[in-house]
Amino acid sequence: MAINLPSPWRWPRRILMGLVGLLFALTAGLWMFLRGSLPQLEGEVTVAGLAAPVRVTRDAQGVPVLEGKDRLDLAYATGYLHAQDRFFQMDLLRRVAAGELSGLVGAAALDTDRGHRFHRFRARAESVLKTLAPAELAVLERYASGVNAGLAALSSRPFEYGLLMTAPEPWRPADTLLVVWAMYFDLQGNLERRELARGWLKEHATPEQLAVLLPDATRFDAPLDAAEVSATGAPTAVPAQAPEWFGKAGDTKLAALEFRTSVGSNNWAVAGSRTRHGSAIVADDMHLGIRLPHIWYRAVLQYPDAAGKQRRVAGVTLPGAPFVVVGSNGRVAWGFTNSYGDYLDLIELERDKSNPLRFKTGADWETAVETVELLGVKGGEAVPFKVLETSLGPVREVGGRFYAVRWIAHQPGAVNINLGKLEDADDLVAAQAIANTAGMPAQNMVAGDSAGRVGWTIAGPLPGRSAQAAASFPFTVDAPLGWQGQMAPADYPRVLDPQDGQVWTANSRQLAGAEYAKLGDGGADLGARARQIRDNLTALGTTDEKGVYGVGLDDRALFIGEWRDRALKLLDDTAVAGKPERAEFRRLLNESWDGRASVSSVGYRLSRQYMYGLYAELFGGVDAELGKLMEKADFDSANPRWPVVVARLLDEQPAGWLPAGRDWKAVQLAAVDRAITELTENGAQLSSATWGARNTSRFIHPLVRAVPALQPWLSTPAVPQAGDENMPRVSGPDFGQSERMSVSPGKEEQGIFNMPGGQSGHPLSSYFLAGHEAWVKGEPTPFLPGPAVHTLTFKPL
Fold first, then answer.
1. Model's pTM, two decimal places?
2. Which helix (H) or strand (E) segment is 590 a member of?
3. Phi and psi angles of residue 328, each rounded to the nearest 5 degrees, phi first
4. What is the pLDDT of residues 764-791, one digit of tens each?
5. Which residue from 426, 419, 434, 435 is spatially nearest to 453, judged by alpha carbons?
6. CA–CA separation, 524 vs 261, rounded Å?
7. Handedness of CA 641, 646, 651, 652 (dihedral sign)
């Protein structure tokens, strides 16, 4: 029976129905907008200027195979795919490098823009374009054309721009160069604060004290050219007195200290003499900050080279650039780790009191060039920013002092597209020669070829340092002016055909001999990771891709195990008497320990927390002083090998280095108590402090920080992760192994690969997190894409 509402109820009902209809329309419109920014997977695209058709197939995880007859055509198609899947990521990279973030997100990014615009990389990129050979420029131009065509072909702009209520700007050839400079910030961006911190320490300690505090080698080092690094440079005894600042505890939280020395990578290779098929096997896992979309974009490029030989290059590309960065070309496979060399000098300048643009650079006076950069701000007026540049580099004022920042990233050749030539390298020697000319942040390149040879060298520019100019402290006004030229490729250090048939690097000292001086110390790790990798490789004997891959999943806690032993020795019956919390700490060290950085281990986390507690007790006070120089400057940035320093002091227990009023046992117990206090905050039980509870990864899209409500759609599931720094399986809450690769050139079908995230940057795409679960579990999935699911064809107009 119909119900007739009284007339006063008819209007509210109509209003309610209208609101429901409006909500439905808005929801449908939003859905259509989001769907409109999904990439085209099927069909044909007609392209002006294409030399021949390009066929793009994608497998079930969205990994493309691009087949064409002309490398320029593939550059165009690569740009098209990058734009449709990852344009926002590309945009962030170029803006980060150029100091142009505020133009996209507003005034909140001005501090970042000031720090990066100081280097004027946009202007440098435009200058580099003018020096490129016509063939090189053509590659960048065709890639940019593909990017802009792919962007224009979307039915609606990438969803991020809808949320930001702005429009994407076209891609330009110079932007690809800026993407490389963005990696300089990622991989060498710590060098300036490192030099400032070390400079402060030098001025507040004697040379003998510095030799203890800043060792240039450790017992963990596993160099390529010797069994270990000679300790002849170490002092025979700890000086009688510590620096005045040493041993003053700070109020820094231990959680804030952790995960600061882990950005790096692992790579290793075994020669054909040790593989079952006679070809080299190369493995690589680059450790980087991880977010969504993921930094790498998988691809396979198939084309005939200049000699007519068919090439198949497989691996990962960096959205914003048209080349395979790491992978295999069928004849050579290669991988990178950050080299942590000394690639930046701070040179103190004297400023003319009567002319603020005039500086004394060594024996001469020089008038700096002043440039006013305009920092665009979304929704606001542009902000002027002055940059002063001398012949030695741009001028930074720190604590009333003036320094020229002489960074290899500023020099001619710091960025070029020579890395792309690796795609056509026929053997290991050719690959090393190409790497030595590449314009990219200096990396340890480990490579192997189908003939079974393996080797190491540096890819990227190196300063041409003399023995007198090698320094990781700021140069004073009256000192030599640091390095002047760049090293010639023929002079680069290299290792070829090692006798034991293996090479490896893990961000520590690569060499023990004189050749290491060519690199210098830019914050090298203490070597525990490298040693564990080396020993694992030795233990493999004759092996295959799966065996080589497994080295990167080793989460045995060999390094932290030593700190557990120290903590157990410390917590004797006297130390725990009347201290139930310490007794519980000791019990968990014993009972919740499996010798690994496993997610269920409480003992692992407590051992690690004890080590960091000692850092806070001994260096917390000086960190506050160093932080005044530059953000994030601290003792850890001055010396990431600090655990070795702490261990030596605990072993020798010099009385003159004791914090006032305490003995060495009291210092160690204070570290334990500090760990307990933090881990039991808000009533938490110490037994619940598993490593997995601390080491839980959840990778998110940058927009989530601005709009937290988006997290369910723009993040990975929260997953406890095994592994940690100072072991091969490096992992942290928002960084880790950004890809895992194990491949033999010419036998790519047997290769192994996985990476976090997925191919697409779009949350509605089935490829958004495709493959992520395999990465979480460490599953050895195929290096090459699977059967084609989608086909897109580019045809000449």
1. 0.95
2. helix 580-591
3. -145, 140
4. 999 999 999 999 999 999 999 999 999 9
5. 426
6. 10
7. positive
